């Protein structure tokens, strides 16, 4: 019975093929080769990467915070409530009773702030997450725990009794968006009067903007990976955009840049 195998154009039967295989094994052959040499370094060029579309830059026609025209009355109400507050406690009460944001009805708790209101540094995040909504305090989930460790590395923290090393922490939105989705421009615009007044009343020396949403609210700009590490001004104060701790949990390699930002903060504070 013919095997149908050929070797260099010569047909061979099964026993001969096995004998050739055994002969090769005895000589230490451990990898099949082609009749012609193959240059394994001669690889085809890699495919060209797909072009990266630049992130949209807010312009006069495309602001990062763009309220709808029919939100003007709600924004005016928020402005009036915020300006009438003469203390942080009064502001928290005013914002808690404000009904302009529909997401308020789906949240468990109003999450206003944490830390020391007399601190030199105010940290502004995006919005409460699941843990924050449950406890009524900002930055208490995994991202918040990482933030505490980051601050502790430069001798700062929300529970530090010394106001020069303490921090005051809040969010742009004070109610959790459903499913932890990103706040909409309308929600940011409706929250902005309260946030601006919160900064005025706390009167921090420096502001940390943690992520895109705080940058959209305070700077009307987005693109945190371009903005981070570059000192700017927000609400009339020096401000440093930083990547959100939640981003660092997803991208640990970015912790190196976050550490550089913390050192920049410490140098600015003369710690």
Sequence stretches where pLDDT stays below 50 over 5 or more residues = 46-63
Listing every helix as H and every strand as E from the N terminus to the C terminus, the arrangement reads EEHHHEEHHEHEHHEEHH
Biggest beta-sheet profile: 6 strands, mixed
Q: Briefly note the structural class of the backbone.
A: alpha/beta
Number of helices: 10
Distance from N terminus to C terminus (CA atoms, Å) equals: 89 Å
CATH architecture: 3-Layer(aba) Sandwich
Task: Give a count of the beta strands, DSSP E runs of length 2 or more.
Answer: 8
Give the CATH level 1 class: Alpha Beta
Number of separate domains: 1
Q: Proportion of β residues? A: 5-15%
Q: Biggest sheet, strands in spatial order?
A: 3-5-4-6-8-7
CATH fold call: Uracil-DNA Glycosylase, subunit E
The percent of residues in helical segments reads 25-40%
What is the 3D form?
Answer: elongated
Rg of Cα set: 30 Å
Describe the structure.
This protein is of the alpha/beta class and 271 residues long. The protein has a single domain, classed as Uracil-DNA Glycosylase, subunit E (3-Layer(aba) Sandwich). The protein is built from 10 helices and 8 strands. The chain has helices at 14-26, 72-84, 88-97, 130-135, 142-152, 185-202, 212-219, 224-227, 245-250, 255-269; strands at 5-7, 10-12, 113-115, 121-125, 167-171, 206-210, 232-234, 237-242. The strands form 2 sheets. Strands 3-5-4-6-8-7 form a 6-stranded mixed sheet, sandwiched between helices. A two-stranded antiparallel sheet has the order 1-2. α2 packs parallel to α6 and α6 (185-202) packs across α7 (212-219). The longest helix has 18 residues, at 185-202. It starts with a strand and ends with a helix. The relative contact order is 0.13. Residues 46-63 have low confidence and may be disordered.
